[in-house]
Amino acid sequence: MPRRLKVLNWGNDVTVANIRKDDFYIPTLQVIRDLGGSASIEEIEDKLVERFGFSQAELDRTYEVSGDNIITDKMSWARSYLKFPKYLSNDSKGVWVLTEAGREAADQPVEVVRAAIRAAKKERRAQQLAARSLAAAASESEDEDAQEAEAIDWSDVLLAKMQAMDPYAFERLCQRLLRESGFVRVEVTGRSGDGGIDGQGVLRVKLVSFQVLFQCKRYKGSVGSSVVRDFRGAMQGRADKGLIITTGTFTVEARKEATRDGAPAIDLIDGEALCQLLKEQGLGVSVRLVEEVTVDEAFFDEI
Fold first, then answer.
1. CA-CA distance, 111 to 143, in Å (whole number)?
2. C-beta atoms surrounding 264 within 10 Å
3. Is residue 18 scored above 50 in pLDDT?
4. Residue 138 has what pLDDT?
5. Residue 128 contacts by C-beta under 8 Å, 6 or more apart in sequence?
6. Which of 112, 124, 226, 247 could form an S-S bond across to 108 if both were Cys, CB 3.0 to 4.6 Å?
7. Residue partners of 182: CB distance under 8 A and separation at least 6
8. What is the 3-state secondary structure (H, E, C) of the chain?
9. Residue in 174, 175, 150 with CA at minimum distance from that of residue 274
10. Which of 25-34, 41-50, 95-104, 150-159 has the lowest mean pLDDT?
């Protein structure tokens, strides 16, 4: 039975009078967990609406002064407050990620979550000051570490790490990457006997949307044409496009099969391209820019 919030009738007007952001703390953590640990705002709100069983009248209610929607406003505040104790993060616009602490809090009483939020808010200022001090103290040692690591190619380290991941964790990583890249309604649906289809999502390009099926493969070697062919057969009539992501490489025959004339095209992302995408999105890869300053002595000579 979905939980229903009470609605108070004031004359002929219906006002959702008792909705609080606290009501969404635990459900928000749980729906993001159920969506694979990361979710877009649209996905979170759709699941919360389904979970609470809101009526259309409740969903349409707005504040008299601002005109903002009451329910979605409370959902938004709940997400923001859950960031204080580091239960959620949203380093990328529109994508919310459940932390390990948030995963544990999802099964706690709401009173525990409220207390954690209050404590985190109270200490926030002190934590920010401490973080600045730690960053300044660590900068010198970070420079030395960077120099020692120059000889190691970062993509080799990243590929080795991904190839050692649990298969389900790698699927969640690909799910997160697709969300960060503009996909919505991304679901991991991998089932044996389903032609290698691991998930699906919707890619929105301005006014047009495409249904996409994807496959994730932690390969150290090459993906052959038979994999592409089987995947295309499984996606026939079920999606507009296909996407195969691997930590390995694709054979020449696989790439030809992916773009074969008369067949639905399948996009291929090999290990090298996957590393670049993770770097661009800042997922597990950080880039430190070094400022180089040069003094133009001639400028001063000519003054």
1. 44
2. 14
3. yes
4. 58
5. none
6. 112
7. 203, 204
8. CCCCCCCEEECCEEECCCCCHHHHHHHHHHHHHHCCCEEEHHHHHHHHHHHHCCCHHHHCCECCCCCCEHHHHHHHHHHHHHCCCCCEEEEECCEEEECHHHHHHCCCCHHHHHHHHHHHHHHHHHHHHHHHHHHHHHHHHHHHHHHHCCCCCHHHHHHHHHHCCCHHHHHHHHHHHHHHCCEEEEEECCCCCCCCCCEEEEEEECCEEEEEEEEEECCCCEECHHHHHHHHHHHCCCCCEEEEEECCEECHHHHHHHCCCCCCCEEEECHHHHHHHHHHHCCCCCCCCCCCCCCCHHHHHCC
9. 174
10. 150-159
Query: Tokens standing for 2?
Result: 């979905």
- Report yes or no: 33 and 20 within 8 Å, Cβ to Cβ: no
Bridge-based pairing of strands 183-188 and 95-98 is unpaired
Tokens of 215: 């496959």
> Residue 213's beta-bridge partner residues?
200, 242
Token pair listed for 28: 């928000």
Question: In the Cβ-directed half-sphere of 161, how many Cα atoms lie within 13 Å?
Answer: 12
Closest C-alpha to 24, from 47, 7, 57? 47
Q: What angle do CA 197, 200, 201 make, to 5 degrees?
A: 160
The whole-angstrom separation of Cα 130 and Cα 112 is 25
What type of residue sits at position 283? L
Which residues, in sequence order, are CB contacts of 116 under 8 Å at separation 6+?
A: 84, 85, 87, 105
The answer to whether 274 and 161 have CB atoms below 8 angstroms apart is no
Q: What is the pLDDT of residues 190-246, one digit of tens each?
A: 665 556 788 899 998 878 888 999 999 888 888 888 899 999 988 888 888 999 999
